Amino acid sequence: MGNKFRVGISPECVTADGGTVFGEEAMKVLEDPAIDWEFFPKRESELTPEQAATYDAFCLMTAKVTPRTLSGADRKVKLVARFGVGYDSVDVPACTANGVMLTITPDGVRRPVAASVMAYVLALAHRMYLKDRLVREGRWSEKGNYLGMGLMGRTLGVIGVGNIGAEIFRLVQPFDMRLLGCDPNVPQSAVDQLGVTMTDMDTLLRESDFVSVNTLLDDNTRGLISKREFGLMKPSGYFINTSRGPVVDEAALIDTMKNQRIAGAAIDVFEEEPMSADNPLLKMENVILAPHAICHTDECMRMLGERAFQAAVDLAHGRTPGHLVNPEVLEHEAWAGKWNWPS
Q1: Cβ distance 102 to 90 under 8 Å?
Q2: Which of 83, 174, 178, 244 is deepest in the core (most CB within 10 A)?
Q3: Which pLDDT value is given to residue 102?
């Protein structure tokens, strides 16, 4: 192995046939003379100081990186590359304090997640989950009882108008919907060309026929949508969450759906993953569920792999990787020549 830059990759990326979810094209990025890579021997909920002393870079799906992970005196890890855009599983201050870069892969999820939201909008609007059941149960005579909702003139509200939220607005253009956005960090001028009106969250919830949540999980967004917020929605409205489970108060969501306070919901993320077998959402006919994987397509996985692996290759050659979450880490003494890696 010599002095090669060692990369450890999440083992949940390995498929049953011994391949990877990323495909051959993405794995070729790691075919670099400076790189030595391997999958972790087993799936870990939290990476250990021993792993941080073994690898120069982590490429991660769900494993946590904590202060304990980075606590060893012989730590060598310099990079945590997340597959995706959420990084609530990584202690960012601990990374920065220890001179560890954290990168994400927004290019890999932008279109796949936005397309998934549109798939949910269409499935809910056409009540596909109910019509599928009618056929399977031989209830053809009931089809007139389940009219869908046309999209022309209806209102789509997006909470979180960043990388993914803006892409949703691009994809929805042909459907002639009214578009509302809510994001304290996005000015009206940034979405004028998309025909979006930026507004406050209460107005968005009251006026939208479809509400899509696309925020990061942090202290400001944890529990962002709860009983009060669901109470503002139209009884005919639909709710979609593809962000993170804890952004939504799941008990409030369950109560809302159980009492049919809104027409339906499509949920990809949950407070507990995997969700427990007794979760009431599993038995509800007005809810579409996915296992935090609605956007997982070959396109998505290829791009996630390529971008995360490229971050490792860039750092192995002394280049600052793209999409750095904690750019202040570059001021750390570690980057003043303490560490050396192959050029």
Answers
A1: yes
A2: 83
A3: 98
Per domain, the residue ranges of the chain are 5-104+297-336, 108-289
CATH topology of domain 5-104+297-336: Rossmann fold (3.40.50)
The verdict on domain 108-289 having CATH code 3.40.50.720 is yes
Give the model's pLDDT for residue 177.
98
* Per-residue 3-state assignment (H helix, E strand, C coil) for the chain: CCCCEEEEECHHHECCCCCECCHHHHHHHHCCCCEEEEECCCCCCECCHHHHHHCCEEEECCCEECCCCCCCCCCCCCEEEECCCCCCCECHHHHHHCCCEEECCHHHHHHHHHHHHHHHHHHHHCCHHHHHHHHHCCCHHHHHHCCCCCCCCCEEEEECCCHHHHHHHHHCHHHCCEEEEECCCCCHHHCHHHCEEECCHHHHHHHCCEEEECCCCCCCCCCCECHHHHHHCCCCCEEEECCCHHHECHHHHHHHHHCCCCCEEEECCCCCCCCCCCCHHHHCCCEEECCCCCCCCHHHHHHHHHHHHHHHHHHHCCCCCCCECCHHHHHCHHHHCCCCCCC
Q: Please give the structure tokens belonging to residue 160.
A: 């979180």
The residues of the chain scoring below 50 in pLDDT are 1, 338-343
Structure tokens given for 111: 């279109």
**Confidence (pLDDT) at 343:** 40
Per-residue pLDDT at 15: 92
pTM: 0.91
Q: What are the residue numbers of the active site?
A: 244, 273, 292
Give residue for tokens 């005196």: 73
pLDDT value of residue 307: 97
Q: Please, are residues 83 and 57 in contact by the beta-carbon 8 Å criterion?
A: no
